[in-house]
Amino acid sequence: MISQPALIDEYYQMLLEKNSHYEGIFFVGVRTTGVFCRPTCPAKKPKKENCEFFKTAQEAVLASYRPCKRCQPLHTPTTLSADVRKLVEAIEADPERKWRDRDFEELSISANTARRQFLKTFGMTFLEYARARRLGIAFNHIRNGKPLIETQLDSGFESSNGFRDAFTRIMGNVPRSSGDIRLLTATWIETKLGPMMAIADDEVLYLLEFVDRRGLENEILTMRKKLNVAIVPGTNKLLQQLTTELAAYFEGTSMTFQTPLSTEIGTPFQKVVWEQLRQIPVGETRSYKELAIQLGKPTAARAVAQANGANQIALLIPCHRVINIDGQLGGYGGGLQRKAWLLELEGQ
Prior knowledge:
By secondary structure, the chain is α/β, with parallel strands linked by helices.
């Protein structure tokens, strides 16, 4: 049980705010109900004097608390509602299906609920998400030489104008040949510290971030424009490999990642800094000043810090292993509590 008054005050405030950066960092036991919850639980908040805080769910169970039925603290944290998860699974079961409002009755979900919850979670409605998934399959068909008209019909677009409009919304233009298409796939990966977004093609990983990172939407938009790519929901073998490696990492059974990374993004200096980050051994840290000296630029600590902050591939390019010269954690796009948790995990 956590007994430090400062931490109790901090965690209680984060509980009131439902701060997702603290997912996996602490669990709260409520004396008056006998249940324990995660920081983002939607239930009514208890008074502070009725709370006990724990580092792990196991500690809360050993203290005789039972898991909350609303936030399910024994499961991997997610911001996906049960309805959204059911709909995503339905899409993956039949990604080429063209959905209509009446189809939601099969899943006992209202069309309005699907539209609202998808918009809140993914920034697009359910029908837009399903359409983007179909277009991802269409992109692959065209890249493999299938005629545009056949791809249009196979993807459920009866009108060529509708097909072209859908391409334009995602790509910015209509492809004239297979050489015009670059496709990246985005997937949602659940972790102990909350969900992460990964974006990759069949060969390399372009982005891995916690989904609540500030500015993530702008990062993705900038990437799409800079690389002239389409980014659609789905999965591929590389993302499946990454998901397996992340699961092992968060369980502490393997700190090694074999997923190949893109070298397209970043300035020459940023790429040099990112490669230096990958050389920091697991369980160790470096200061921005130390990295600058290693790069032969002892006065460039600020530039190193900026390059560190511009990293878009969390964990695999371990920017969380860089701290201030005074030993303080410094900054981290995913939140300082996550940074502290990751360093403790690797230190073990």
